[in-house]
Amino acid sequence: MYVVLGDRKMDPDAFTSTLFKWDSRTILPTCSSSLMEGTGGLKELFHAYGVRYYTAAKVAELGFTARTLVDMKEEELEHMMNSLSQIFRWDLLVGERYGIKAAVRAERRRIQDHHQLRIDSLPQEGVQQHKEAVGSTWDVRKRMRSRSKTMSDEEEEEEEEEERQREHPFIVTEPGEVARGKKNGLDYLFHLYEQCRDFLIQVQNIAKESGQKCPTKVTNEVFRYAKKAGAHCINKPKMRHYVHCYALHCLDKDTSNQLRRQFKETGQKVGAWRQACYNPLVAIAALHHHDIDAIFNSHPRLSIWYVPTKLRQLCHAHRNNSASTSTHHHLLF
């Protein structure tokens, strides 16, 4: 049987095979390659935040990359998600909305910390000029390794000094109790965070006067300023180590005081008290869609601090467990 097209006869089998034949030269790159571009790719950007793979693929299909999302404003992100669900009829879950926002905020912080780390790692005496005679490429590499080793040794010495201070220089005390002995109480610990806030304001004022960019959070610049001001008890490892304890003190003072009394009565050490401060914070985050970043950013005394990675991971794990449990009960019903 032949198909007559105009005055030409065509074989239908040949027509079908020709119509559905793939031309390998015109195949577009797969979606997975586009997800790997930018600042880690959409797949990696959303992986730990409860966003489904198909949702990430749909966002990539619309032309968005991880770099684009990171550079977008909050209202632009909201507009993008509204367009995704309303115009393109995509079933965007409520948790995915918060997951996308949380992932973008986390990526922004990662980029900011990486940039700050690169600035802090620059040698203070300036870059040495390579106008001296060099014998070979091996000598150049050897010199570079020696220079980097000197820098790392200096950083390690500073970190070791800070680590010695970090070895739990506090004891568990009740609210209003003054510690005895060499170690300080928890009221003093929380007072250090208030001091950091004051130092941040001073650094911001100095930056405004000199026309430089003002830091909005307690960064390495603030810790260096505190050290120059004589506040040697304030250092980055110590303040980052107990920041979630201070967060509980700010968000739920009654629960914080109850924990302090409980651990003081049982004679437990400050390390155990520090670990116990995580669970109440996860419970608080559960009441706000597990968005611990939004809780920190909306609080006047916590917005200047970065959310600890472990606390964020615990909130995400609790959210995923809650979602899987609710799904299981729904299936049983």
Automatic annotation (TrEMBL):
User: What are the record keywords, sorted?
Assistant: Activator, Developmental protein, DNA-binding, Nucleus, Transcription, Transcription regulation
Q: In Gene Ontology terms, what is one molecular function of this protein?
A: DNA binding
**Family recorded in the similarity comment:** Belongs to the FLO/LFY family.
Cellular component per GO, a single term? nucleus
Chain positions covered by the region annotation Disordered: 125-168
UniProt function note: Probable transcription factor.
Show where the Floricaula/leafy DNA-binding C-terminal domain sits: 161-323
Give yes or no: UniProt keyword Endoplasmic reticulum. no
Pfam families documented for this protein: C_LFY_FLO (PF17538), SAM_LFY (PF01698)
Q: Which residues cross the membrane?
A: none
Recorded protein name is: Floricaula/leafy-like transcription factor
Q: Where is the composition biased (Acidic residues)?
A: 153-162
GO terms of biological process kind: regulation of DNA-templated transcription
Q: Taxonomic lineage per UniProt? A: Eukaryota, Viridiplantae, Streptophyta, Embryophyta, Tracheophyta
Subcellular locations according to the entry = Nucleus
Origin organism is Arachis hypogaea (Peanut)
- Residue span(s) of domain Floricaula/Leafy protein SAM: 40-114
Q: InterPro entries, per this entry?
A: FLO/LFY_C (IPR035209), FLO_LFY (IPR002910), Floricaula/leafy_C_sf (IPR038276), LFY_SAM (IPR035079)
